[in-house]
Design brief:
Radius of gyration: 20 Å
CATH class of the largest domain: Alpha Beta
Distance between the termini: 46 Å
Structural class: alpha/beta
CATH architecture of the largest domain: 3-Layer(aba) Sandwich
Number of strands: 16
Largest sheet: 7 strands, mixed
CATH topology of the largest domain: Rossmann fold
Number of domains: 2
Number of helices: 9
Helix content: 25-40%
Strand content: 25-35%
Order of helices and strands: HHEEEHEEEEHEHEHEHEEEHEHEE
Strand order of the largest sheet: 10-9-8-11-14-16-15
Length: about 325
């Protein structure tokens, strides 16, 4: 494994040099599924080397060697953290003992983010494969932004850096929204321009699009309106009291209201994380949905950056920048 990590870091030399210049120390150093180690990822988050496994736990003695390889290649010491996240519900997650500072901060594109490798949830607080989208959001500079399924509001923070006057972050997890607001403050960004909407995204999206929220009455009511930029980054599947999110069988249920609350001439940025859904099928769904709503769209396909290589040139994460 240490040889694979050393080779992967060497392949990333141009990216790592650019990262230093642009203020980024949060990158994937080994994307195991495409670089010879399925079920393993190695990420750098500032001072942390985060090693995650899904299939088999790390063999004894491997973690220190990975830490040594990274430190030698990057020229800096990192604290290695190993989180084993088994796919089977019958197997418990394993966390090796390590002393961590109370605050762990990583930087991306000059922005600072809370990057604690262990917290209440299982996922990292910042998804590195969405860097390409956050980069574009900063450059786009939309004035009003709706960030759906926002998690810890990385895109919302990027929108503020891009000069947004108003950002709505919508997520059902209050703890994730709290991290997002703290990240904005960490970067001295205007938190008074942020509305943290703690609610299931489905009824909020429906109300913004001018439709009924569903059979249940939501705890928050919003008036129909549009945004210059709408970001739709849903999970593959989830089920709640306001309905189900299923981006394989029924993505138009989300796409229709998301397009409806995208201003004319605005942008809908949308993701599809399911590897079994081809890019062609994803784009066809987008076009059919827009056609049914009478919206003309131009679609740019975005791919994760070089630290997320794909062995077949078809990355599982698909991102579309839809000018509507």
């Amino acid at each position: 494994m240490q040889d694979l990590l050393a080779a992967a870091i060497q392949r990333r030399r141009p990216l790592l040099e650019r990262a230093v210049a642009e203020g980024t120390d949060a990158l994937r150093l080994l994307h195991g599924v495409a670089e010879g180690a399925p079920g393993l990822t190695v990420d750098r988050y500032g001072p942390i080397l985060l090693v995650q496994t899904w299939r088999d736990p790390l063999p004894d003695g491997v973690l220190p060697r990975l830490e040594e390889v990274a430190a030698e290649a990057l020229g800096t010491g990192l604290t290695a953290v190993w989180n084993h996240r088994p796919a089977s519900a019958r197997e418990y997650a394993r966390l090796h003992a390590v002393e961590l500072p109370q605050a762990v901060v990583a930087t991306e594109l000059g922005l600072r983010f809370d990057a604690r490798p262990r917290h209440r949830g299982n996922d990292p607080l910042l998804f590195l494969d969405l860097r390409t989208l956050r980069r574009r959001v900063i450059a786009h500079g939309a004035r009003t932004v709706l960030n759906l399924f926002s998690y810890t509001c990385g895109v919302g923070t990027a929108a503020l850096r891009g000069g947004a006057d108003q950002v709505w972050n919508v997520d059902f997890a209050a703890s994730a929204l709290d991290v997002g607001l703290a990240n904005a403050a960490l970067n001295d960004l205007p938190t008074d321009r942020v509305r943290q909407v703690h609610h299931d995204a489905l009824p909020i999206l429906r109300m913004l699009a001018g439709a009924k929220p569903g059979r249940r009455r939501p705890t928050i009511e919003v008036e129909p309106r549009t945004f210059e930029l709408v970001v739709l980054d849903p999970p593959a599947f989830s089920k709640g009291p306001w309905g189900a999110v299923d981006v394989v069988r029924d993505y138009p249920t989300l796409l229709k209201p998301a397009l409806a609350c995208t201003a004319e001439g605005g942008v809908l940025a949308v993701t599809q994380h399911v590897a079994s859904v081809s890019l062609e099928d994803f784009l066809a769904t987008l076009r059919r949905t827009a056609e049914k709503l009478g919206r003309r769209v131009a679609i740019d396909v975005m791919e994760p950056e070089e630290d997320f290589p794909s062995f077949d040139g078809r990355p599982p994460l698909k991102i579309a920048w839809v000018r509507a």
